[in-house]
Amino acid sequence: VLISIGTAILSYMVFGIVTAIISNRFFTRMTPFGLWEQISLIVTSILLGLYIGLAYYAKSSGKDNVCNTTATAGGVFGFLTFGCSICNKILVFFLGVAGVFTYFEPIRPFLGIVSILFLGFAIYKKAENITAA
What does the alpha-carbon distance between residue 22 and residue 83 come to, in Å, rounded to a whole number? Predict the structure, then answer.
């Protein structure tokens, strides 16, 4: 439980600082953020904390690891949801600034939903695997 809580708080702090949702002097966000980004950051952090806690428990109890790829994809999609699209150099490189606003910005809420679904599925399968073994 402590690992889950600690990981959730650490995820919130690291992702929040890097994406400048938590204001700091090291990173500047080029686009404003709203309630959707804040909620996505909180939910993603909580789900990552739960998954890491279950993964730690599964590893310490000798259970098999499952859904690591799904959880990673959920974390990446979550980061893309609450991160600044213009600050993401890879997106700007491939799509250009106009392409990011035209093609990527409209799908960000859907990425958030996919992120939550992926992380929720990974948590479910990890817990199912622990209880089955």
Answer: 12
What whole-number distance in Å separates Cα of residue 92 and Cα of residue 105?
12
Place of tokens 């959707």: 36
pTM of this structure: 0.87
Is there a contact between 30 and 92 (Cβ–Cβ < 8 Å)?
no
State residue 95 phi and psi, 5-degree precision.
-110, -20
Q: Residue 62: its pLDDT value, please?
A: 66
28: helix, strand or coil = coil
Chain segment 92-102, per-residue pLDDT in tens: 999 999 999 99
Q: Which helix (H) or strand (E) holds 61?
A: none
- 51 contact partners, CB below 8 Å, separation of at least 6: 71, 119, 122, 123, 126
* Structure tokens belonging to residue 127: 């817990």
